């Protein structure tokens, strides 16, 4: 790209806010009542992290892998890529995240959700925000309920809840699993910012808190 | 900045072949827009076209697709002809195709497309795909988008023109980028059209590119007339001066468009909109009187001082 310094963030925005939020409305209408299932799965993740039954790492990774694959295909590839050609290149990253989660869950000693430090507890709080608070946002920002972003259906709450759960995780693959959700939230936050949407700070804040929690843990070591 | 006097104004208009023609409107019909000649062929085009950047990128949303089709219908009903798009504009191309199909393929259409791929060899395939999206047998105009891989794409486009697969060849830039290279290409190649950003506050093109287009006999398409809506939003709260009525401008959008269209080198301005009332308002800006050189300076000074 020539004269790159003359470009503003807004220059990369290919669609209007109306089109963006209607995309969630259409996706919700097409996916309903899967929302109930994905929300139940999200709550089950939190319970699994708290109670840690046998093979909890496997089941948590399996659920997250399935939902990343689903969101990457049903929302990013099938809807969002239609109005933003760059998303066609991003959607496979959700597939890669699903694969990494599946590998982490299947490998012996790959993932255990056994961290109970401050970062781990903060993670559970972030996970609950992604699960419970995100679907409640539309009226706060003057949008219809039908545009709600739901965990396992829309990418932002899926990424946020995943990061929260991962903060409670230990295992060799864990550092790698943060990258894609964090990068997604950065991209999403910047997109919302370019749209002039007041919700832009939410994905950015979730990503920042996650990074800060990881940094705190490293310092505390 | 080049100052346009009455003399240079008339001279440039004559040189560019963009002389203003006001067609007579049928009784009871809305006034027809000003027509401008494409210098390389003499073909007359209405001076306001329809851009599709952002506004037509509505994906598969059936409600918004129908709204876009209504905008296209209102555009043709008001006397418009040129619709401009690009493979870069997301789903805009299939949405145009949907609208044209719904309207029964209006004969008035002047299709202006772009080739936009850094892989020069992919140009022909991309143009073919764009044509499928629009559902047209051939494009009237294909432009090299933002000068991406321009050398090879221009070769391809001139060959297509020679074979009758497109009618005109052009290049585009926006927001004042790469004007030096743009000028070089204009001097070196027999382009039919150039597309650039020009409006009452972005006047850099007046210095070299617009006079050069007139000198080289190239039609000029003006993109981002409202700075992607930022200019009209900024002016929204300001009062339109009383003297705007002298040139028939009833809104800020018409004020801006009349400024653009009154430059003698400009052939077509392509504002983009999602609203039927706005598309009518835009085309209406190309009817009635246009400002002369003195009025143009008054308009620019007024906006600058706000």
UniProtKB/TrEMBL annotation, chain A:
Keywords: Membrane, Transmembrane, Transmembrane helix. The keyword Membrane applies. The chain crosses the membrane at residues 32-50, 57-76, 82-106, 118-137, 165-188, 200-220. This is MFS transporter permease.
TrEMBL record, chain B:
It holds the Pfam family Aldo_ket_red. The keyword Glycoprotein does not apply. It comes from the Bacteria. Keywords: Signal. Residues 48-296 form the NADP-dependent oxidoreductase domain. InterPro entries: AKR2_Oxidoreductase, NAD(P)_OxRdtase_dom_sf, NADP_OxRdtase_dom, TAT_signal, TAT_signal_bac_arc. Gene3D superfamilies: NADP-dependent oxidoreductase domain (3.20.20.100). Transmembrane segments: none annotated. Residues 1-26 form the signal peptide. PANTHER family: D-THREO-ALDOSE 1-DEHYDROGENASE, NADP-DEPENDENT OXIDOREDUCTASE DOMAIN-CONTAINING PROTEIN. This is Aldo/keto reductase.
